[in-house]
TrEMBL record:
This is Fe-Mo cluster-binding NifX family protein. InterPro entries: Di-Nase_FeMo-co_biosynth (IPR003731), DiNase_FeMo-co_biosyn_sf (IPR036105), MTH1175_dom (IPR033913). Transmembrane segments: none annotated. Pfam families: Nitro_FeMo-Co (PF02579). Residues 11-96 form the Dinitrogenase iron-molybdenum cofactor biosynthesis domain.
Length: 121
């Protein structure tokens, strides 16, 4: 299984589309066996979910995310875990233990985004 984290270096990004990179972790038998950083190729409507699908990603972890991206991930059978903050690798380890839950932090407006975007309730 591949788990991608929308990241600002090693921290979960506040907004999926505006991350610096995607930290992609390959999991086998509950353990991380490979880590790679894939640079964000650019924020365009509908592009990033398809890009991650093409990389073979099964799960995406992020702070906030727009509803359109969530819909595309759902269509691609990619699990979406949003409303997350902290170190990317720590969040993947929590996910693998079954201890990471999505808060459903959907960004409804794209007029304004900052680090607080993932903190919507």
């Amino acid at each position: 299984m591949k788990i991608a984290v929308a990241s600002m270096i090693d921290q979960v990004a506040g907004h999926f589309g505006h991350c610096e990179c995607f930290n992609v972790y390959t999991e086998e038998n509950g353990k991380i066996i490979k880590e790679e950083c894939v640079e964000n190729p650019g924020h365009r409507p509908g592009f990033l979910p398809n890009f991650l699908h093409d990389l073979g990603v099964n799960v995406i972890i992020s702070g906030g995310m727009g509803g359109g991206a969530i819909d595309i991930f759902n269509e691609k059978n990619i699990e979406v875990v949003i409303g997350i903050q902290g170190k990317a690798k720590d969040m993947v380890e929590l996910y693998l233990k079954g201890e990471l839950e999505s808060t459903g932090s959907v960004c409804h407006s794209h007029d304004y985004h900052d680090a607080s975007c993932g903190a919507h309730s």
